[in-house]
Amino acid sequence: MIKAHVFKYSQVILTKRELAIIKFSEYSRLNISDIATMAKEEEKPNGIIDQYKTGKITTAKFRKKMNELIQEKNGNPIRDNEVFDKGWNAM
After folding, report:
1. Which of 55, 83, 86, 90 makes the best surface tag, with the fewest CB within 10 Å?
2. Collapsing DSSP states into helix, strand and coil, what is residue 14?
3. E strand or H helix at 27
């Protein structure tokens, strides 16, 4: 008999969303509360983060859209892909 263990993906990988928010704040020169609010809004269904996490948009489009949101708040866009990815992967 074959046994299988079923579990939710979200319970396997622990993420620290706050770490990514801190890094994006540092890199964009926006305050933490602005980045946290942006993240909260964009994690909602069809937000930029939600679209990226569900594979609806490419990494390039995700970076572009996030930088547009950062600029709308008068922050510095994170144009270096390696730096952007370091911020995103901080979680």
Report:
1. 55
2. coil
3. helix 17-28
Mean pLDDT per 10-residue section of the chain, whose length is 91 residues: 58 72 95 94 96 96 97 96 94 81
Tokens of 9: 């993906």
Sequence-separated (6 or more) residues with CB below 8 Å from residue 31: 25
Contact yes or no for 2/52 (Cβ under 8 A)? no
Per-residue DSSP letter, 9: G
Query: What does the block give as tokens for 86?
Result: 């370091």
Query: How far apart are the C-alpha atoms of 84 and 64, rounded to whole Å?
Result: 11
Q: Residue 79 is encoded by which pair of tokens?
A: 């144009």
pLDDT of residue 2: 61
